[in-house]
Amino acid sequence: MGNIADTTVLNNGVQMPWLGFGTYKAEGNEVYEAVKTAIEVGYRHIDTAAIYGNEELVGQAIRDSGAARENLFVTTKLWNQDQGYDSTLRAFEESRKRLGLDIIDLYLIHWPGKDKYKETWKAFERLYEEGSVRAIGVSNFQVHHLEDLLKDSNMVPVINQVELHPRLTQQELHQYCREHQIQLESWSPLMKGKLTEQADIVEIAAKYGKTSSQVILRWHLDRGIVTIPKSVTAHRIRENADLFDFELTAEDIERINGLHLDERVGTHPDKLLF
Ligand SMILES: NC(=O)C1=CN([C@@H]2O[C@H](COP(=O)(O)OP(=O)(O)OC[C@H]3O[C@@H](n4cnc5c(N)ncnc54)[C@H](OP(=O)(O)O)[C@@H]3O)[C@@H](O)[C@H]2O)C=CC1
Ligand SMILES: O=C1CO[C@H](CO)[C@@H](O)[C@@H]1O
């Protein structure tokens, strides 16, 4: 991908920008300003969730940005306690109202949990069929969740959004998703800023005249992974989008793959049962 608006084509034909803007832990005026700045800088894809408590301000910032709605890609997510058929349809209406958007580009099941995701997925299929969402997907699904879901569903999720960064490279899940035309998307792509001093990344960054964060984000894109770094700091919002004038070599990608330690900053999906 050579520029910020470049897209991947999802398994239902919808185009989704490879680079998105994360909004977790961004609230109040901070999230409003951050989303406006991101759109000004050129981000065309915004990631939020009902649980982030910021859908109203994200929606307001989108409207005030002046960008044409059809040029933006907006993702939101169904929270765990709303899983189930009827409760999903209700929660979706609430998210849509808070965002102030007629159509959501991508709706995700936020976490699999243990026994309601299939019923929930039926409601997602209905939302898709009635045209309320342009695409439906999942988040934090392991291979066993996907295998189980695919056994009885009519639609294959377009996306699986999971924790993924150089300390958690998700190679096996990536392979499974590729085989099933599910686009992998990374959350906490920067491992929340914990890898900026890592020696290999610092050395690679110096070679390209880029920052550590830019090298990490380029590693996601060069592996074919959609990514959604979050920042509420204007110069970092810009920095994280200034990635389209270089590409990593295969050796640099392998070197960063080698940093994998199976280490997480978030909860393991098999441990979050509700
Ligand atoms: N589906 C899911 O379960 C989850 C989804 N997500 C989504 O993924 C997005 C990204 O993940 P997130 O957990 O926020 O973590 P990130 O890996 O994107 O890191 C964000 C942190 O890194 C800092 N940062 C951002 N850019 C830079 C930079 N260039 N240099 C140094 N530090 C930087 C930010 O600081 P500052 O803001 O102060 O600039 C912030 O503290 C979320 O915002 C959310 O949209 C996240 C968690 C779970
Ligand atoms: O996206 C996320 C961040 O917020 C939640 C907690 O409040 C996490 O569980 C979730 O994965």
UniProtKB/TrEMBL annotation:
Keyword annotations from UniProtKB, A to Z: NADP, Oxidoreductase
- Record: residues binding substrate: 110
Q: What is annotated as the active site?
A: 52
Positions of the NADP-dependent oxidoreductase domain? 19-258
Q: Name one GO molecular function term.
A: oxidoreductase activity, acting on the CH-OH group of donors, NAD or NADP as acceptor
Q: Which organism is it from?
A: Paenibacillus polymyxa (Bacillus polymyxa)
Entries under PANTHER family matching the protein: 2,5-DIKETO-D-GLUCONIC ACID REDUCTASE, NADP-DEPENDENT OXIDOREDUCTASE DOMAIN-CONTAINING PROTEIN
Protein's recorded name: Aldo/keto reductase
Q: Which family does it belong to?
A: Belongs to the aldo/keto reductase family.
- For the site labelled Lowers pKa of active site Tyr, the residues are 77
